[in-house]
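Example 9 (inverse folding). The structure is encoded as follows.
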């Protein structure tokens, strides 16, 4: 079973929503992604609406190391040290701080090419990325690994947005938790921020990979539960970038 933890907040004066996911069965609770820095109270509130506390959560699976997915990770680990942090093996050095964030490297590399009026905001973004605290990863996963967690979780390596990005397939319910492999914009599936995707061709191939799975329900971190024919929407998205 899964539950969507829609979290509403304001960022730069605009209302935004992110959708971490809670997996559960009779024995276990697992959180997938955890939002921006200082989001621990928002996460606690979202869990409480489902009568769950962090004391019950055993693992936190990270889809990739973008700030909106891991910003609260260090704060959560300090407050709830029993929670095991799980990521793809390629993401581990970025989460632990032994390698610099790829998003930070990207932001720094484009700074000089920006017009002067855009640089203050970009510099603020860089400072925010630099402030993200490293967190030890307790357990790394590889593509196609199938775990018995919460009724069955299959790891799907979906690079492009970032090289170590993963999605999670739940065979029992034919559900895919997509992270940022795709987003929902105006009711349609789209590549997440294609202008900032580290490898757009790989991102499109990852969408093609999803067509190999029987997906009845698709959950996007940005957009929540997709309403519509998942396979058709994925095919249309691939066609948009390959035709």
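The amino acid assigned to each position is listed next.
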């Amino acid at each position: 079973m899964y539950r969507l933890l829609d979290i509403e907040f304001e960022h730069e004066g605009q209302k935004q929503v992110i959708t971490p996911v809670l997996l559960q069965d009779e024995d276990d609770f697992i959180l997938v992604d955890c939002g921006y820095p200082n989001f621990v109270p928002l996460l606690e509130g979202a869990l409480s609406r489902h009568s769950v506390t962090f004391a019950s959560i055993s693992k936190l699976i990270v889809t990739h190391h973008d700030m909106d997915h891991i910003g609260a990770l260090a704060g959560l680990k300090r407050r709830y040290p029993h929670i095991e942090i799980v990521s793809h093996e390629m993401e581990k050095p970025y989460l632990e701080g032994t390698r610099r964030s790829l998003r930070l490297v990207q932001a720094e590399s484009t700074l000089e090419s920006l017009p002067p009026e855009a640089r203050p905001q970009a510099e603020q973004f860089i400072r925010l990325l630099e402030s993200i605290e490293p967190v030890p990863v307790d357990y790394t996963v590889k593509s196609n690994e199938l775990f018995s967690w919460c009724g069955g979780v299959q790891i799907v390596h979906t690079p492009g947005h970032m090289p170590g990005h993963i999605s999670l397939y739940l065979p029992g319910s034919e559900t895919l938790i997509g992270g940022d492999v795709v987003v929902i914009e105006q009711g349609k599936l789209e590549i997440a921020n294609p202008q900032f995707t580290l490898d757009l061709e790989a991102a499109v191939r990852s969408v093609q990979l999803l067509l190999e799975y029987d997906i009845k329900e698709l959950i996007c971190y940005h957009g929540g539960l997709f309403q519509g024919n998942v396979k058709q929407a994925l095919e249309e998205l691939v066609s948009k970038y390959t035709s």
